[in-house]
Specification:
There is one protein chain. The protein is an alpha/beta fold. 43% of the residues lie in helices and 23% in strands. Helix 8 packs antiparallel against helix 9.
Length: 244
């Protein structure tokens, strides 16, 4: 059984995806499986992923028959994962040396069910910045009310206690909802303050017209209000600001 299962949903953007996977391969020691969920990438990217999987036996490509939103795509990978620790990783994220060690250490703390890293804009000095960032922060954790799915590490037990992502949420707020569910199930969420990775952010939604983003935001807000009555006022405020 692999120690770590990393689920990476993709659709096109091969240079970005290749960089993400190359860093993942370089900076993740030990027993590992990588599940790339391909939601309809162009043929050249499909061939490139197939070639990479031949060179990297830990990599499996799950090819979808048609594109799926984030939650549905990630769930395909979660269903097939075998690791003791599950990591959701966006292809616009750039892991750094020791990233998995930091998150595993965070998950070993009492009551912790999920952990995430700190993030910065990626650049040529990312590895140097991450090494400097970790100095003096080893083992430091900060309890947080929510984590973000660009890099989200889950204990297998925590995942099994709350289940898959809610597929009614389309391209947004999946991580808010999952964080609420984990907390409701009694799990603690933490940020690993000694772990820094690069994240571009908005690589998918940032390219959409504003009207489309607002439509998804309104639909997701309705789902969240139905599920989380006590959180509805805060969610409405956050979504108004995000999709104004």
């Amino acid at each position: 059984m692999p120690r770590l299962s990393v689920i990476v949903p993709v659709r096109g953007r091969w240079p970005m995806t290749r960089g993400c996977l190359e860093r993942l391969r370089r900076h993740t020691p030990g027993l590992l499986e990588v599940l790339v969920v391909d939601g309809g990438s162009p043929a050249p990217m499909r061939r490139a992923l197939a070639a990479l999987s031949r060179r990297w036996p830990q990599l499996r490509v799950l090819r979808l028959e048609s594109p799926l939103p984030f939650a549905a795509a990630v769930n395909r990978g979660l269903r097939l994962s075998r690791g003791r620790i599950l990591v959701l990783l966006n292809n616009d994220a750039s892991v750094t040396e020791g990233w998995s060690v930091g998150l595993e250490r965070a998950l070993a703390a009492p009551g912790v069910g999920a952990a995430g890293p700190c993030a910065c804009a990626p650049g040529r000095g990312l590895d140097r910045d991450a090494a400097a960032w970790s100095l003096g922060r080893a083992g430091r954790l900060r309890s947080v009310p929510r984590l973000y799915a660009f890099c989200l590490a889950l204990k297998r037990e925590a995942f099994e206690s709350v289940g898959l992502l809610d597929e009614r949420l389309v391209w947004g707020e999946e991580d808010d909802d999952y964080s609420f569910r984990l907390r409701q199930a009694g799990w603690r969420l933490v940020a690993a303050e000694d772990t820094l990775i690069g994240h571009i952010g908005g690589a998918t939604r940032g390219r959409w017209p504003a009207a489309r983003r607002r439509a998804f935001g309104r639909a997701n807000a309705r789902v969240l209000r139905e599920k989380w009555v006590a959180e509805a006022a805060r969610i409405r405020r956050d979504l108004r600001a995000a999709f104004a």
